[in-house]
User: What shape does this take?
Amino acid sequence: MPDFKLSPGSLVLYKSSPAQVVAIADKIEIALPAGKNKRVRDKDITPLHPGPVSSLAALDAGTPAIDEAWELLEGEEATLADLAELLYGEFTPASAWGAWQLVADGLYFEGTPERIIPRSAAQVEGEQAQRDAKLNAEREWNAFIARVEAGELEDGDRKRLAEVERVALGTSEHSRILQTFEVAENPESAHRFLVRCGYWDAEHNPHPGREGAQLGAPALSVPELPAEKRVDLTHLPAFAIDDEGNQDPDDAISVDGDRVWVHVADVAALVTPDSELDLAARERSANLYLPEAIHPMLPPAVTHQLGLGLAEESPALSIGFRYADGELGDIEVVPSRVRVTRTTYEAAESMLDEGDLGRLRAITDDFRAARKARGAASINLPEVSIRVIDGEVVIRPLPRLDSRSLVTDAMLMAGEAVARLALAEGLAIPYAIQPPPDKSEQPSSMAESFAYRRFFKASKTVLEPGLHAGLGLEAYSRTTSPLRRYQDLVTHQQLRALVTGGEPLAQEQIAERIAAANAVTGIIRRSERNSNLHWKLVYLQRNPKWEGDAVVVGLEGRKAAIIIPELAFETKIRLQEGMELDQTLRLSLTGVDLPAQTARFRVL
Assistant: This one.
């Protein structure tokens, strides 16, 4: 207790503020710095000076002699009155308040008004170091915030902003930086923020990272192709027909009289089950095709060795069969050597009326007609190729060429042939199935195709063959893209074991591989779909005066679903009176929002 009696005018401590005693009764009335009075209990206040206090606003005793007082009190104890006199030379309400503030600060002194002790030199030094570090951190933080606000980042700022990037990529839900700027903590808002402050380029594609896709090729060594006996098919002209710019030619076609050959890159000759290369491909599931880059599931050296037509002769796993009366027969699979000519769909189009491609066209046309008779779907919706070449977004419509149909059906024939061979041999492989759609009428317009697509159910990869309704095939295995799809590679590993006398994997092992690939397939599809949309929007953003045609493909409440054929771009606009299905509209672009993945258009 203090050595003075409280009376009106005494200085007391209330919570952390000075107060002046006004009156004393059953409770003590005090005046606070804000000009308000309050009645409190005696235990709610701490006496500091008997007073009288002239003004709570005038409690300034000047500059204290802190170092002298601290040194003089070394190893001693003092009252508040003693400390005030050492600090200021007198004990007044102002010096009492000044002394108490130093005690409350806790750097040099600690205790109560009745018992104050100085802290040791080590304590003072340690405390001061912590305070300096905290102050520096606050200064650095404030400077960082200012640079972010101005969009003038320094190298060290990128490390701090990684927390915002994690929100933008969906791997974290919280960011102190976003909270500081009062920005919503969601991927879209974080994306806008990173672009605004310069962390991300304005056209940055976040979608593969957001989906968790693996980028870059596996960093693994690739062995040389083992020497083995191969069937020499180099006398047959073989054609690898792809889109222009294709970098992984993994299939080619030949015809030998009435016998069709589909040659496929012999990836399983290098990538054996459970090898490091196999595990890397399994982990990735498929090549990731982005407009700005291709991220392969296997090291590029595999393609360099095995890509068809990349050397004068290519090793292949060739699938041969005959087709007659709607049925495949005389099926065989052999390791082979082939001589392949690479060409594009456009170039092949002019060769379909004669020679080998002419004969293949007749066979595949008949096969296609049989598939359609069994209910195969034909959905006529626009398709485009999207590539970023030297920074330019190149969008090229994919015309519906007969050469493309020929290749597609030749690959489907190979897939059916392999499925039938595996069934006959009791070989476990992945089969692709698809249930029939809820509606079976074939569409005849773009609007009908748009509606019909919704009736289709997703295809599945399973251990037992079954109907693939979309293809019109009763048994089918994806077989012709082992450089690009892991499940095709698994099929090749099984085929190789069958035809070379090896030990095929058991059904349980195939099931494990199917499950592993399926777990990643969705990541690949979403990454590609959202990346394609992203770069279409970038293209529009770079062309703010864009105008073009759109087709109305759906009328949904107050919205009209439209497709812009030249971009294969689907969106919705406000429904206007008189709009009809399959009507062509002329549109102009009014805005693009990359983070939201939307574009706005006006009907001209």
Q: What stands out?
A: The chain has four domains: 11-119, 123-200, 231-534, 543-603. Residues 11-119 form one domain.
